[in-house]
Amino acid sequence: MAGPAERPKIAGVIFLLLAGVAIAAIILQTWWAISQDRSLTFKSEYENGLVTVRLLEEHATQTLREADGNLSTVINAIQSISRERELNDDIIRELITQAQPFNKVLKALQYVNTTGKAFVSTIDYPAYQVDADERTYIPYLLKHPEIKHAIIGHPFERFYDTELVVPLARNLFADNGTHLGIISTDISVAYFSSVYARVAKDSKAIVSLFTDEGTVIVRFPFDKKYVGKEFKQSPVIKNLVLKEVEGNFRDKQFLDEKNQIERLYTYRKITGFPIVSVFARDNDSILSPWRERTRDRVIFSGVTILLLCILTFSLWIHIHRLHSSEDSLRKSEMSLRISESKFVNLFKFSPVPLALISLADDKLVEVNDSLLRQTGFQVQEMMGKSPQELHLWEDINLRKNYLTLLKEQGFVDQFEMRFRYKNGNIATCLLSARLFESDGDKMVIFTPIDISQIRAIENEIRQLNTDLEERVRQRTQSLEETNKELGNALDSLTTMQVELIRSEKMAALGSLVAGIAHELNTPIGNSVTVASTLQDHAESMENELSTNQPRRSILAKLTRETSKGANILVRSLDRAAQLILSFKQVAVDQSSNHRRNFDLSTTLNEILATLEPMYSRTAHRLHTDFASDISMESYPGALAQIITNSVNNSLTHAFEQMEHGNMYLKTRLFGQHQVEIIFSDDGSGISPEHLARVFDPFFTTKLGKGGSGLGMHIVYNLVTDVLGGKIELESEPGKGTTISLLLPLIAPVKQTDRFAA
Predict the structure, then answer these.
(1) Which residues form the Histidine kinase domain (predicted)?
(2) Three-state DSSP class for 123?
(3) pLDDT tens digits, residue range 593-605?
(4) Which CATH number fits domain 349-450: 1.20.1250.20, 3.10.250.10, 3.30.450.20, 3.40.50.2300?
């Protein structure tokens, strides 16, 4: 046995060991809690990601099924007609026109026959026929008529409104099984964007929808280069084929090649369609709350360890001094009592709820203030009573499990249980406990941490996720109603614009008629005068011939004057005929949407002949420089209106305060498939503040003086929409104006209906 002198040493060593064990336990418990919290953080992120991709899947599924349902309705209608009569392309096109999509999301129906000829019917534009383009799904379905299900094509921009759409296509069969071609509809990518952009912004995440083959349909944050981009060779796409319907994976560059940041990707495959929805957040964003909680845990554990170290060091010093003398021993005993008091105070005033229980009789020995505040009991109400007598445990069986673990392991960590307070409230707590001996008695120190608020927040999040579907549905319905109202307003504005353009065209044609009538007045008046003179000469010749001896000199004179008058009459009538012929051709072209082949220089000369009365009686002149042998297949009426408006603008605006002005009209080939037409004048020019608004509708500097403000707006629409070309305008004050047109030699057929308006 150790002597009296050695006992303080042994006690000091044991005390230091106990302190070391306590510090190690605190460190290990803190590390374990941090590790568990990190795992739970990623697990929670995965669960939240699953909720999000399921909602996105339902949104996409609803849209795709609606599109597929529209296609099925049209196919059923075509098959029903095929039972009554033999189908051809014209009948199918008529049915397609009558069966336009039912909303603004599904923008168009397209029919492609077995030869590759395409016919498109849209909501916003009249129906038109074109050759099928090189979209991959068209030759694929034409080559594989045995495919009965719908397939999704590559996203693309439509030519007439540059809107991003994704096609959904199916093979079309008659009722007897005859393959008729392909029918498809375009789904607006913007419909997905309205939902995906909000989710990506709110969650600071990457949200995407792509096909099983790796073609991106939509990706937010939005970057146009990703729409339609192929990731077919990506290892992620290859691995997703083998994965389950939903799950997660990690990657550093999928859908974000610029930033090499590891992200947690949560995905779900859309049932019935080869499409996958993805929700991804980077690790920094996911672990940001965890880092804050970890910092707080480390600080708390560090403070606890520091206090324990200070207390341990203090006690060790006092024990060490016992070796000096009995007086020193008494001082040490006093110091020990002080230290014990500090330890008691540390226990009593600890911010963590703590309690000591005697394992032998299951009675509470000590409780600290934090536990009293948490439970609502007074100290005298708890001391000497067991947890069972106080009814602290809601589930007795769960308490039995806790005691079993404690006796087997000597400790319990993060044991979730339901704790009943004095007021009857039930709280969810994480119970940690340690078993130790004190004066030969087995004691248990335990701490119940209330996590009711955390669980309530988790339940609230689950409820919010449940309510999200209903909010999305309501928001979608509201957006559809708004889109419908905007569509009605747009139709009204379009109708008004068409009427204004028609009025402007008729006004231009009326001005042309007035000019031609004025120009015809001179040759026709001359012809009437000469015809009257010829009539007088004929009567004189008849009188001379009726005499017995007609005079040769008089007959010769009458013959010469008659021949001279006939020549004048022929020239005057020939001039009138040329004017009438030019007017007839230009008027026919300008009042219709007739498309024909024509020689450019001939047509321009005919147009200028009808415009000559506008400036022939002024000092203004128009100079031409036409390249020869330029043949076009286009719309001469549109070209005539462009030249007419340009000449009229020069005479009305550029030469308003000038006595002499020059206009120039030049043409030249531009490459092999285009022609450049340049009209310019040396007039007053256009001020910079007006230059940017020349092509705006209803913009005019002659407001209230006969100007409608539609002339140059019509020119812009005719060049870009009808003739399929480009227009540029250059002008400086005092240096004149130049209008440059770059037109294709063969105009696009697809815009004729709009020009007809």
Answers:
(1) 515-747
(2) coil
(3) 678 999 999 999 9
(4) 3.30.450.20
